[in-house]
Amino acid sequence: MKIVIVGSGRVGAVLAEAYDAAGHKVVVLDLSTRAFDRLPAEFHGDAVRGDGTDEDTLRRAGAGDADVFLALTEGDNRNIMAAQLAAEKLGIKKVVAKINDPVRAAAYAELGIATMCRTTIQADAISEFLGLPALGLPGVIAPTGSHHGKEGHAPLKSAIEAGTAGREA
Amino acid sequence: MFVLVIGGGKVGYYLAKELIESGHEVVVMEKDRARADQIADEIGSIVVAHDGCEGKYLGEAGCARAAIVAAVTGDDEDNLVICQMAKHHFDVPRTIARVNNPKNEDLFRHLGVDEIISPTRMILGAIEQDIPVNELLHLAALGEGELEIIEAHLQSGSPAIGKAAGELTMPEGCSLFAVVRDGIATALRPDMALKVGDKVIAIGPSDCQAHLHEQLIGGRQEPSPAGI
Predict the structure, then answer these.
(1) How large is the ipTM?
(2) DSSP code for A134
(3) Cβ pairs A/B, distance under 8 A
(4) Which residue from A162, B22, B81, B125 has the fewest beta carbons nearer than 10 Å?
(5) Minimal-distance CA residue of chain B relative to A151
(6) What is the pTM of this model?
(7) Torsion over CA of A97, A100, A104 and A106, rounded to 10 degrees?
(8) Nearest chain B Cα distance for residue A134, angstroms
(9) DSSP class of A112
(10) Who among B56, B78, B88 is closest to A77 (CB)?
């Protein structure tokens, strides 16, 4: 598989290393070349300095024919934009965005992007460790709609209002 | 009309001010508290000091009854998310986004933003209007600058159209050596007839420009402020 990772932070670098070691073709993008220090010396993939929210940069980095796109920068909105660019403009089938605001995470899942919310994942992990009930907020949400869904963008509203779309992971 | 302005920078500030003066109801959202206080001091208590990207605060600012949401922060990704939240969560009839990277215009439109304003594109347009298209383009200076590589983009008014390259008289030390046609560069042969749209590449001393201009562009060279 060809996997593009935007954001060479801790999560991005760990996944890049693991997928590369497993034999996948990995491309990592980050605005800062220093972030690539997190990659191991034996990393075989491409490390590209550039803006993952810029279509030209993504295409130059070879994202045009990627199978998987992971938006893992520290900015929710940057991840949202990069992910929508990947799904809508580059036509990448599997797109995951890290969105730490639970409301936005639920909302964008309904627009066709798998979202992952560190806030609720951590909160639930802590609750579980303490033996307390989980909060029941969405952590990892598989895409439940798309920009081209039957009702267009309408489903987004229901997700936000519910705030507690079903957990899938 | 109730207009919700997100982003209290220069654009948001003056926008709010103008809208109020023309009698509209305005709320400004600015996440930086110091900046929000400053705006409130100057134009009144119409400022919500919270992040407009958060659905919760958008709601508190009255997004649901806004006729227009204008996302004018300095970050394209924030403006996109604000407009999408406004449009799809609050059913705002009209969303306007400021876009800094002109390449994002397409994406924003595709993702449902109603109106896209690109200051970069506007300034670019104004500049391009002022650049004469039928001038020589200086690609590079060689050596100590006594030699230059110059490109001439042949327009329909050029006296070189239809002539073979060998028919053009070139001054001493100046030669035409390549032509770019339909994106493909080829060596310029003396029997090659020149066409509209060709980019002819010449090399020669800096003082041969007037001659090149006359032969390839036509007319007199206009004085250039850059001294080229």
Answers:
(1) 0.77
(2) P
(3) 67
(4) B22
(5) B88
(6) 0.69
(7) 70
(8) 22
(9) T
(10) B78
Number of H helices, E strands in chain A: 6, 7
- In whole angstroms, give the CA distance from residue B114 to residue B117: 10
Option in A78, A153, A160 nearest B77 (CB): A78
Within 8 A by CB and 6+ apart from B48, the residues are B27, B28, B29, B30, B36, B57, B60, B61
Alpha helices, H only, chain B: 10-21, 33-43, 55-60, 76-89, 104-110, 119-130, 209-212
Residues of chain B found within 8 Å of residue A53, distances taken between Cβ atoms: 76-77, 104
pLDDT tens-digit series, residues B103-113: 899 899 989 89
Distance of alpha carbon B80 from alpha carbon A109, whole angstroms: 16
Q: pLDDT-derived band of residue A15, with 50, 70 and 90 as boundaries?
A: very high
Residues in chain A closer than 8 A to B76 (CB atoms): 53, 81
Residue B149 to chain A, least CA–CA distance (Å): 29
Closest CA to B53 of B73, B27, B26, B23: B73
- Sequence-separated (6 or more) residues with CB below 8 Å from residue B164: B190, B191, B192, B193, B194
Burial grade of A18 (CB within 10 A; 0-12, 13-18, 19 or more): exposed
Chain A partners within 8 Å of B91 (Cβ): 157
- Mutation site, B89, B91, B109, interface A, largest A CB count within 10 A: B89
Q: Residue A34: left (phi > 0), alpha (psi -120 to 50), or beta? A: alpha
Q: Which residues of A touch B97 (CB under 8 A)?
A: none
The residue in chain A having the minimum alpha-carbon distance to the alpha carbon of residue B107 is: A85
Place of tokens 């995470």: A105
Cβ <8 Å between B89 and A80: no
Residue B207: band (very low, low, confident or very high) from pLDDT cuts 50, 70, 90: confident
Q: Tell me: the pLDDT tens digits for B102-152? A: 889 989 998 989 999 999 888 888 887 766 656 788 888 887 778 888 888
Strand partners for A47: A28
Chain B contact set for A91 (CB, 8 A)? none
